[in-house]
Amino acid sequence: MPPKKRKADGEVAVAGAARPPSTSLLAALSEAAARPLSWRKVSADGLDVDYCRLLDGALADRTLAALEEDVDYFTGDLAQVFVFGKWHDIPRQQCSFGDAGLSYKFSGRTVPARPWPQSLLALRAAVERAAGTDFNFVLVNRYRSGADHMGEHQDAEKELDPAAPIASLSLGQARDFVFKHRDARRPRPHKRDIPPVKILLEHGSLLLMNHPTNQVWYHSLPARRSCPGVRVNLTFRRMLRA
DNA sequence: ATCCTGACAGTATC
DNA sequence: GGATACTGTCAGGA
């Protein structure tokens, strides 16, 4: 389908009858998810992702404000990672929410899923509608500045449903997201020259990572000194029950 | 100045 | 049970 001009997003929302400022965030998110979305597909060998602007600027602002209010991030052990013989503070803030009984493994430890806060339930419903998939878990990453980042990795844990996409909602500072083919990062004899795929993840955007992307490509969020603002990212997943 | 790459251990998993 | 994966930081080069 033809891509929409970005400007239309905000103006369509304003064109109808004036909405009272008391419109709940839940209702506004529900309405946003019911609108037709303009998806941009990005494909490469083994890579299949879809990108769209799910929330217009004003709604993305409100959503980010609600999350900044509602979400507390891990501290202590859960905010550290053991890499190459040393403990480090992870270069970002992190926490997770999910249905009762779910947990996930990160850096060798099992992290419990907290119960969903209200604002996150509304957001989950909107993302589920846009993605056409039900999710039972979300990992929230908060990048405090352009120095915060995440290294190359795959989301291919055994407990993830391989058939379900992972839906990544971005709020706040736009940042580059980089996919790298697994064969492009092998040691030299067998290294293949496959160019990385970069996508700018904008305020209010939704990225779907479809099968088999996460089995074939690594992804990362590199540091960007010229992007100093706060970014909050939510990756909705479907976990298999143990 | 900024970004990208490779080297760096030890534990866990298959 | 030998091979592979996983994580972040730092130094060096483009």
Automatic annotation (TrEMBL):
List of residues binding 2-oxoglutarate: N141, Y143, H153, H219, R231, T235, R237
Q: Name one Pfam family in it.
A: 2OG-FeII_Oxy_2
Q: Please report the organism this UniProt entry assigns to the protein.
A: Megalurothrips usitatus
Q: Which GO terms describe its cellular component?
A: nucleolus; nucleoplasm
PROSITE patterns xrefs: FE2OG_OXY (PS51471)
Query: Among its keywords, does the record have ATP-binding?
Result: no
Q: What is said about its interaction partners and assembly? A: Interacts with PCNA homotrimer; this interaction is enhanced during the S-phase of the cell cycle. Interacts with nucleolar proteins NCL, UBTF and NPM1. Interacts with XRCC5-XRCC6 heterodimer.
Question: Where does the Fe2OG dioxygenase domain lie?
Answer: 134-240
Q: Which is an annotated GO molecular function term of this record? A: ferrous iron binding
Give the organism's phylogenetic lineage: Eukaryota, Metazoa, Ecdysozoa, Arthropoda, Hexapoda
Q: Which residues form the signal peptide?
A: none
**Gene3D superfamilies registered for this protein in UniProt:** Alpha-ketoglutarate-dependent dioxygenase AlkB-like
The cofactors required by this protein are: Fe(2+)
List positions binding substrate: F84, G85, K86, Y104, K105, F106
Q: Give the enzyme's EC designation.
A: 1.14.11.33
- Please report the name of this protein according to its UniProt entry: DNA oxidative demethylase ALKBH2
Q: Spell out the reaction equation it catalyses.
A: an N(1)-methyl-2'-deoxyadenosine in double-stranded DNA + 2-oxoglutarate + O2 = a 2'-deoxyadenosine in double-stranded DNA + formaldehyde + succinate + CO2 + H(+); an N(3)-methyl-2'-deoxycytidine in single-stranded DNA + 2-oxoglutarate + O2 = a 2'-deoxycytidine in single-stranded DNA + formaldehyde + succinate + CO2 + H(+); a 3,N(4)-etheno-2'-deoxycytidine in single-stranded DNA + 2-oxoglutarate + O2 + H2O = a 2'-deoxycytidine in single-stranded DNA + glyoxal + succinate + CO2; a 3,N(4)-etheno-2'-deoxycytidine in double-stranded DNA + 2-oxoglutarate + O2 + H2O = a 2'-deoxycytidine in double-stranded DNA + glyoxal + succinate + CO2
Using the UniProt record, name the top-level EC class of this enzyme in a single word. Answer: oxidoreductase
Q: Name one GO biological process term.
A: DNA alkylation repair
Subcellular location per the Swiss-Prot or TrEMBL entry:
Nucleus, Nucleolus; Nucleus, Nucleoplasm
UniProt keyword annotations, A-Z: Dioxygenase, DNA damage, DNA repair, Iron, Magnesium, Metal-binding, Nucleus, Oxidoreductase
Would you say which domain of life the source belongs to? Eukaryota
| Record carries keyword Cytoplasm | no
